[in-house]
Structure formats: structure tokens, C-alpha cells
Write a structure and sequence with these properties.
With 154 residues, the chain is an alpha+beta fold. The protein has helices spanning 8-14, 16-21, 100-138, 141-153; strands spanning 57-58, 65-74, 77-86, 92-98. It is elongated. GO terms for molecular function: sequence-specific DNA binding; transcription coactivator activity.
Length: 154
């Protein structure tokens, strides 16, 4: 299953879910949406987590607030959650924004995977056809007739 849908921008612009969350709102939970934001999770090889830059976690922009930016794939669409959280009250505002750059990257990855699958299928079919032709060329007409008769007897 692909990570992204074929026309991400259209889905982002036309689905009510994304239209609602693309407007700055006080709480995503009011829409029934809960996000667990992870910044640069450890990779599968166990390497150390990266420390997020100020672009993603900014405590200095405004006193008492942390400004956050979190890229993700949500329902097959590349988006960035942008918002802030009040450090005293632990509430805040946020919204989703379409991530065109990452969407193009993910589309290219999906297209490459599709082309690779198509190439493998074509290679398999070519090998199968070649194997079948080799069997037909090496088998004598008598062997082919005998094998056909024995298949009919089964």
C-alpha cells in the first residue's frame, strides 16, 4: 500500500477533514483528532535521535510559548502541523498546511516503486516465456505427444 494518495493536493483542498484542520483552531481534539507529534524519531538502526532545530521547536519566539512545526503524512497526504502551546496553561492553537515539497518527494518515491514493480513483473514474464520456449525447443515431438497423452490419462 502506498504511503500517499495519487492526488494529495486535491484531497487536502477538497476533503472536509483537511479543510477544517487547515484553519487555525484552539484544539484539534474538538474535531476528534489527536496527534502524537514526534520530532526526528530514532531510526530503525538505533542511531541517536536528532535534536530538532529552532525551525521545528522554538522557545524563544515568544515568552511563555513554544512554537512547533511537525511534518507528517496524514491520511495519505503530506502536511505540516504548525502551532504553539502555552507553557503555563498547556493549551494552544494550530493548523495543518499542505507540504508541497514533501508531497513531490513522496510522489516520486511512489512512482519509482511502481516502476520497479512493473520492471520485476516484466522480467518475471520474460524469464517464464524464455523457459517455456526452451522446454518446447528441447522436447521432441514424441515427448510432447506422450506428455500430453499422460496428462489426459490423469
Amino acid at each position: 500500500m502506498p504511503r500517499v494518495v495519487p492526488d494529495q493536493r486535491s484531497k487536502f483542498e477538497n476533503e472536509e477533514f483537511f479543510r477544517k484542520l487547515s484553519r487555525e483552531c484552539e484544539a484539534f481534539v474538538a474535531t476528534g483528532t489527536n496527534l502524537s507529534l514526534q520530532f526526528f524519531p530514532a531510526n530503525l538502526h538505533g542511531d541517536q535521535r536528532q535534536v530538532p532545530t529552532r525551525e521545528y521547536v522554538d522557545f524563544e519566539r515568544e515568552s511563555g510559548r513554544v512554537y512547533l512545526k511537525a511534518p507528517m503524512i496524514l491520511n495519505g497526504v503530506c502536511v505540516i502541523w504548525k502551532g504553539w502551546i502555552d507553557l503555563q496553561r498547556l493549551d494552544g492553537m494550530g493548523y495543518l498546511e499542505y507540504d508541497d515539497e514533501r508531497a513531490q518527494h513522496e510522489d516520486a518515491l511512489a512512482q519509482a516503486a511502481f516502476e520497479e514493480a512493473r520492471r520485476r513483473t516484466r522480467d518475471f514474464e520474460d524469464r517464464e516465456r524464455s523457459h517455456r520456449e526452451d522446454l518446447e525447443q528441447t522436447a521432441s515431438p514424441t515427448q510432447l505427444a506422450c506428455s500430453a497423452v499422460s496428462c489426459l490419462q490423469l
